[in-house]
């Protein structure tokens, strides 16, 4: 099992962020801020809200299509991480059985409404996080964090984490592989060997940190990671942020869906 | 002895990111053969070797070891037969001391203590590593690690031996020692390496891999003297055949 | 035990974000003032190590299932409170972004639950005093198990509080606690044993390593009383603020845990204000005047359905359904259209 | 130009676990010299190289680079002069993209943006790696990583270049490219390797290390043809000098 399989194609997600689409080229800061606004707005709807959430799907769809991100891939990742929210949410229909409304003779309980609402919010929020990485790249997000005032120390070590994530995971994977090749049946798979494996990996990691530090020093490192990439907020970036804010506001404060529904009912009674 | 036969039938392998590392590998190795695998960086040698014991499973085609087709199910059976030495010895040494590491395989085979100790000593002696017995692997030099990794596989007495760049970090004497060790190993063996001189010494047959395909397959003396074939694959004549 | 955005309300999310950012800023400042710059690669690489160690699994005796290492406690032991907290926050950021494990808003909660407790509470107050000079394997074992269990219990309990305070789940308090705590007790014991094993191994193999880390560790071997008080202070303020806010939205005290949460007072006052203003504007500008938009206050239905309810009558719900179908169709259409133009366009 | 001089005076080094890796190393390398370091596995070559930029500090004796004695204080000054390529490129490529990594050194030197870009391009072009510019290191093959690691050091335009087994993972063609790159580098260089043919091609002087001591020191042609000396140190004649 490769690292990618274990963590459900992290490498692929990372690779998507090397794209050069319109969305990819937006300033990372703008995307981070817009994503946070989006999340807060979605989350701020009351527990039983459903219809008002639907227009928000416009955002992920725009990012997916304009950014050239495969929708199926993102969806599968969302499903992959859903168990916790589902487990907690599924109690709602059981515990809250008040009938709220009757649609076509079917009584709809409040619990089902709130469960569905959790599901929608889950898809929207999880999708937003994944799409942020897929269209911004992790280093881009790190730069944004730094410009947004996160301590340089924190951001630098975050970049190291990203860089060595793949290296160390592959290393761990190959160590496990070596162990599994020399274990037959259950022996050797227990905690005792595991603890040593992790211990060895830890020691190697620390040694590696030493060597990396040496390599950094020999290239003039003085406590600060310089970056050549400079981000300038362009008119396009501001326009994107403004448009996103206005749309989010509209979706939040006007019952768009219901309005359209009534409009449609008015037209086709 | 049909169980020492290795058969690759139209084996394809694609990495999760879409890299087509193997694109239709086909060969058959019979009992007692010694085969060298050569090719450019990124040609697919390591990927191929990892198919020998099911570390990777083909995305298309079949690998047969002895009379078992390689699948997720038969993997464990096959692990007992094939010993692989990986390119990076650090991947292979995971126990706190050299002794524990070499003993790990035999212990898991269920041998008793005396037998295990005997095997460990024999295997370490083979690679001239008896003095490293009680050292922790992360305190070894690169070449010492390689030697121990080889010992830890030899201690399992595999039917089929596969090695990926076994000599890259060894000093010339240890390399010679490895060559004689390999010559003395009478079962089937497969060795992937850029060290064409080693291949020429140890392997009677040589397979050239290029972009995931078998480009040439034949007696080493023949293949490794074809300058154009070699150069087309980022290789060159073995150094001992080059005039200075 | 990662909180998900979908279970969270903005108030809870932002409160814990604020708490985590404050602690993170404090930790960075502490580290920065005595920064040994070799800590930067070390912290980063150890963050990666946490992920890598999770690639290695083991079989839990007797159950046949497999487990792996968690994170926070072992980092705290090896790096000290401040650095460990920052590394844990980074690990959680990567999990939120790459694995969509937990969400971005829930990040504040997760950093708090999985970083703050082990690093700033359990490590200095439980682990350090118990483990003593760290030379006795028995003490390491006991201290690790107790610490990991304590950290996980605190974290799990916080998840319960945060979820309930957000009011998205109908789970009663008792049931939720019964669901979360025992599971995490089991996990904690296994993880504690594993943590102890790793620490003991590292200590045996490279004693100077742990010692040197201890030496450069900002929180020295003697935990000062002042620091404990500060830590506790922050903790009390955040939890207290959090609980009082919670209490104010659920005025009937403990009854909320037994009766169903009726989802009252979801939005903070300010947003109500904005909403009210906007509604006023809407009425004044007579936007779509012919269509009867739901004015929540004007339709108080029965008593049990509180004012916050979407005021559903069959008319609005059919409008909602029709509208929903149309909105989704429109979104799909927009997506398909863009796809079409991108394919056919000059870009490819 | 005294600042390109390397002087080891009775250098000892003991690892924390007590291993005496260097036991009185003594040599002097002057400007423009090219020196090969050879010796058995575990002789102390990697340990010696790590003293060149203060990754390790001698437990006894002094290392002088130019006119500075190596201490914890002068380490930073010395880093600017010495570029080291480590045995494992993953330890060296620590930035998220190839470009950022190669630019790291020049940026720290305080060069302006245009100059940095120019240096990065020149360095990548040297190792035939321009096409890798925007890739993240974790998607490179082993050979490509080695090439980029070399570029990231060359971009610093060091006064002194040190490499530890640079050719171990390279295929024969890439190895040739490295050899010509090294021949073109006119400042001082030190290369530790078991690839005696590479040493013979690139280095005019050769130092043999055995058990942490200098065993022989002289012109490569001379040293690398002394069969007995070599064999006493686990080495052998370069393959291209061996008759087949
Ligand atoms: N984990 C991986 N994910 C994606 N692609 C990979 C992975 N490992 C290897 N590859 C790619 O597969 C191809 C074959 O790689 P492989 O490691 O088999 O080459 P090799 O012949 O062993 O090369 P070398 O001589 O450098 O060891 C290369 O193009 C490489 O980039
Ligand atoms: N981190 C370490 N801790 C303790 N001992 C070490 C450590 N690294 C190396 N050694 C020991 O120091 C000696 C010299 O090791 P070094 O790595 O310098 O050898 P080398 O000449 O580079 O060998 P190789 O050719 O195998 O790379 C060896 O005996 C080795 O076991
Ligand atoms: Mg390979
Ligand atoms: Mg070495």
Gross morphology of chain B: globular
Number of strands of chain B: 10
**Rg value of chain A:** 24 Å
Biggest interface, chains and residues, is: A-C, 126 and 120 residues
Q: Give start-end ranges of low-pLDDT stretches of chain A.
A: none
Determine the oligomeric state from the structure: heterotetramer
The amount of helix of chain A comes to 55-70%
Q: Measured on Cα atoms, how large is the radius of gyration of chain B?
A: 18 Å
Count of domain modules of chain A: 2
Strand content of chain A: under 5%
Given the C-alpha coordinates, what overall shape of chain A results?
A: flat
Question: What does this 3D model show about the protein?
Answer:
The complex is a heterotetramer, with one copy of chain A (269 residues), two copies of chain B (244 residues) and one copy of chain C (348 residues). Helix content of chain A is 70%, strand content 3%. With 269 residues, chain A is mainly α. Chain A folds into two domains: 1-150 and 232-259, no CATH class; 151-227, no CATH class. In chain A, strands 1-2 form a two-stranded antiparallel ribbon. In chain A, helix 4 (28-43) packs across helix 10 and helix 4 (28-43) packs parallel to helix 13 (235-253). The longest helix of chain A is centred in the middle third of the chain and has 30 residues, at 152-181. The model of chain A has no long low-confidence stretch (mean pLDDT 82). Chain B has 244 residues and is α/β, with parallel strands linked by helices. Chain B is 33% helix and 24% strand. Chain B contains nine helices and ten strands. Chain B has helices spanning 45-49, 75-81, 98-108, 113-126, 142-154, 172-184, 196-202, 220-223, 227-232; strands at 6-14, 20-29, 34-38, 60-65, 68-69, 82-85, 160-164, 188-192, 205-210, 213-219. In chain B, the strands form two sheets. Chain B has a six-stranded mixed sheet with strand order 6-7-8-3-9-10. A four-stranded antiparallel sheet of chain B has the order 2-1-4-5, with no helix packed on it. The longest helix of chain B has 14 residues, at 113-126. The mean pLDDT of chain B is 88. Chain C has 348 residues and is mainly α. Chain C has a two-stranded antiparallel sheet with strand order 1-2. In chain C, strand 1 and strand 2 (66-67) form a beta hairpin. In chain C, helix 3 (72-79) crosses helix 5 (107-131) and helix 6 (137-166) packs antiparallel against helix 7 (173-205). The longest helix of chain C is centred in the middle third of the chain and has 33 residues, at 173-205. Mean pLDDT of chain C is 70; it is low at 214-225 and 243-312. The chains are: A mainly alpha (269), B alpha/beta (244), C mainly alpha (348). At the A-C interface, helix 2, helix 4, helix 5, helix 6 and helix 7 of A face helix 1, helix 2, strand 1, helix 4 and helix 7 of C. The complex binds adenosine-5'-triphosphate (2 copies) and magnesium ion (MG) (2 copies).
């Amino acid at each position: 099992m490769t690292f990618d399989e274990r963590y459900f194609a992290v490498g692929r997600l990372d690779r998507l962020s090397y794209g050069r689409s319109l969305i990819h080229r937006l300033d990372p800061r703008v995307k981070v801020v817009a994503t946070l606004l989006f999340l807060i707005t979605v989350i701020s709807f009351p527990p039983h809200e459903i219809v008002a959430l639907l227009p928000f799907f416009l955002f992920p769809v725009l990012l997916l299509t304009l950014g050239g991100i495969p929708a199926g891939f993102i969806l599968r990742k969302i499903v992959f991480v859903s168990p916790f929210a589902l487990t907690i949410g599924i109690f709602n229909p059981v515990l809250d059985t008040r009938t709220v409304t009757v649609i076509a003779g079917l009584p709809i309980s409040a619990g089902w409404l709130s469960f569905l609402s959790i599901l929608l919010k889950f898809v929207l929020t999880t999708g937003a996080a994944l799409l942020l990485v897929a269209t911004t790249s992790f280093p881009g997000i790190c730069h944004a964090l730094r410009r947004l005032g996160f301590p340089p120390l924190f951001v630098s070590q975050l970049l190291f984490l990203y860089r060595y994530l793949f290296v160390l995971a592959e290393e761990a994977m190959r160590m496990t592989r070596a162990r599994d090749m020399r274990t037959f049946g259950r022996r050797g798979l227990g905690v005792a060997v595991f603890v040593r494996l992790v211990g060895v990996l830890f020691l190697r990691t620390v040694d590696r940190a030493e060597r990396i530090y040496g390599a950094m020093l020999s290239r003039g490192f003085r406590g600060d990671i310089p970056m050549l990439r400079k981000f300038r907020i362009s008119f396009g970036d501001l326009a994107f942020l403004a448009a996103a804010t206005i749309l989010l506001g509209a979706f939040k404060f006007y019952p768009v869906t219901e309005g359209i529904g009534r409009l449609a009912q008015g037209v086709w009674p | 002895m049909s169980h020492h036969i290795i058969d690759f039938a139209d084996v394809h392998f694609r990495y999760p990111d879409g890299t087509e590392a193997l694109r239709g590998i086909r060969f058959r190795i019979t009992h007692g053969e010694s085969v060298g695998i050569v090719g450019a960086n990124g040609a697919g040698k390591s990927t191929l070797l990892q198919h020998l014991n099911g570390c990777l499973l083909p995305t298309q085609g079949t690998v047969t070891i002895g009379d078992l087709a390689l699948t997720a199910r038969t993997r464990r059976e096959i692990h007992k037969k094939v010993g692989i030495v990986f390119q990076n010895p650090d991947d292979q040494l995971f126990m706190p001391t050299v002794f524990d590491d070499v003993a790990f395989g035999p212990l898991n085979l269920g041998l008793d203590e005396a037998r295990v100790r005997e095997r460990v000593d024999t295997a370490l002696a083979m690679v001239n590593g008896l003095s490293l017995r009680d050292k922790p692997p992360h305190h070894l030099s690169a070449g010492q690690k390689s030697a121990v990794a080889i010992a830890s596989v030899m201690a399992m007495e595999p039917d089929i031996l596969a090695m990926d760049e076994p000599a890259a970090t060894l000093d010339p004497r240890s390399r010679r020692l490895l060559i004689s060790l390999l010559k003395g190993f009478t079962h089937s063996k497969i060795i992937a390496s850029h060290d064409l001189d080693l291949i020429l010494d140890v392997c009677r047959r040589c397979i050239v891999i290029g972009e995931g395909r078998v480009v040439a397959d034949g007696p080493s003396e023949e293949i490794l003297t074809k300058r154009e074939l070699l150069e087309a694959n980022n290789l060159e004549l073995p150094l001992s055949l080059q005039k200075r | 035990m990662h909180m998900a955005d979908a279970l969270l309300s903005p108030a809870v999310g932002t409160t814990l974000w604020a708490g985590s950012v404050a602690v993170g800023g404090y930790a960075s400042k502490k580290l920065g003032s005595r920064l040994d710059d070799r800590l930067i690669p070390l912290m980063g690489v150890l963050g990666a190590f946490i992920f890598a160690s999770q690639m290695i699994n083991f079989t839990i005796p007797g159950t046949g299932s497999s487990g792996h290492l968690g994170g926070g406690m072992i980092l705290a032991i090896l790096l000290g409170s401040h650095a460990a907290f920052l590394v844990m926050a980074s690990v959680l950021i990567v999990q939120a972004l790459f694995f969509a494990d937990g969400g971005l808003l829930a990040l504040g909660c997760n950093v708090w639950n999985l970083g703050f407790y082990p690093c700033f509470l359990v490590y200095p107050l439980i682990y350090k005093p118990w483990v003593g000079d760290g030379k006795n394997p028995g003490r390491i074992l006991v201290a690790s198990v107790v610490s990991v269990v304590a950290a996980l219990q605190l974290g799990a309990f916080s998840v319960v509080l945060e979820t309930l305070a957000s009011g998205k789940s109908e789970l009663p308090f008792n049931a939720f606690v019964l669901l979360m705590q025992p599971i995490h007790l089991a996990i904690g014991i296994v993880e504690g044993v594993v943590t102890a094993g790793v620490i003991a191994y590292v200590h045996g193999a490279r004693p100077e390593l742990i010692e040197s880390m201890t030496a450069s560790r900002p929180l020295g071997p003697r935990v000062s009383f002042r620091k404990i008080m500060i830590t506790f202070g922050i903790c009390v303020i955040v939890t207290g603020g959090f609980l009082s806010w919670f209490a104010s939205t659920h005025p009937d005290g403990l009854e909320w845990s037994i009766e169903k949460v009726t989802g009252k007072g979801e939005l903070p006052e300010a947003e109500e204000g904005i909403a009210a203003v906007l509604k006023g504007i809407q009425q004044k500008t007579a936007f779509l005047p012919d269509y009867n938009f739901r004015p929540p206050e004007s339709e108080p239905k029965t008593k049990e359905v509180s004012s916050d309810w979407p005021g559903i009558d069959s008319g609005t719900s059919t409008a909602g359904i029709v509208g929903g179908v149309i909105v989704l169709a429109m979104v799909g259409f927009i997506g398909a259209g863009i796809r079409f133009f991108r394919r056919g366009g000059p870009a490819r």
